[in-house]
Amino acid sequence: MTVREAVDKLEEAFRKLIGADTEALKLVANECCWEELFDVLRKRSNASNLMRWICENICEKISLNNGWSLFIRAWREGLVQFKDFSSVVYDVHRLRPERWLEAPAELRKDAIYELFERRPGEPFESIRHAHASGGQVLVPPIGYIPDVSVRRFREMVQASGDTESLALIDELIQERKAACLVAVHHSSSRPLVLTSAERELVARLFSLARQGGFRSAPLPPIHLSYELPPIFLAYPELEEDGQEREEDTPIPRDRQRGRPETMSIEELLGCYQADASQITLWVRGIRWFARRLGKDEEMLRAVVLVHELGHWIMHRLTKAGVEEWPLSLYKLTHEDLHECWAQLQTWYVGRAVGGAFQATFADLNKHQPAAYRVWERFQSVPPVRAFSALEFLRRLPWPARLQDWESRVQ
Ligand SMILES: [Zn+2]
Predict the structure, then answer these.
(1) Are residues 123 and 179 in the same domain?
(2) I need a labelling partner for 200 at 20 to 30 A (CA). Which of 10, 72, 98, 275 fits?
(3) 271 strand-pairing partners
């Protein structure tokens, strides 16, 4: 086969949108033929597109290094532009170092930028996927992890002795590391986007309130916080879960501290802040406790969410003639009443939906302190009566106590 015949074959395949003939491709991939190849191609009307296509095919099917070299040459002749040569950029880390150096500085720079664009590494890759699929993204605050192809690419460039390109690669890596540090710092909390399961649970809660004549309302701000929950601050060894702490710190650990006997929802998993009327869910506490219970993390989060929304409902939901609970009195309301209400609401929802939600609530409840188990005495109270008692409590001129509630529901 002559070079001209090979080009004819390739041009036909290009026109018909079929695969390139391997024999023809092998022939034109050979550097000895390139003078002739250019002579033949220059006379064709579609020389530019055909050359791009031939280069791509050589890269993919014959040799990345030869395809790259041919492309460089075609670029120098003004036959192709860098943007035409997209496919090789994915594989540029596999080039031989001496081939990398064949490219003029301008092209090398373009290739570096392009590789970072296409292989953004984590967490950028996950963010991009999440945006593309319109879904929610759970990006752990891990900092920047370059893509493997970027790491290999850096090694290849280093081996080539191309210090200028190496400096640019390092600069781009540093830039991303710094950006992620800032992001990690600011992402110590982020707003919760409700899953469809959580939306159903919210609807169940509202339906209880509506039975009592209360109106549904826009949800308060709900944050997922990556800060340490209060109980981990009080018992730092808890989170280590048996792992030995590095002992070279200058402050000795209190060996008498022991472990807490119970861990309340509010100390470990989440809380409702009445002043700001917002909910915080402690991601680290939820993760840790879910593992300890052997339960699904998302399901435990859903239980905690419903519990905290229970507090919010007690404080803020209104009906005709019944205003929100005045903040100062709400805050002075006794803890056992607060938790009785929130747990009872969660139990109502669990009874209605059953399954893993109900089981997770039951397991969580077993580990709660006394104030969180008071509700168990009120299982027979129908939701309607609970909400009518809430109306009564809200009108009390003193901070409500458990006995005030009890007097209305028994
Ligand atoms: Zn609570």
Answers:
(1) yes
(2) 275
(3) 280
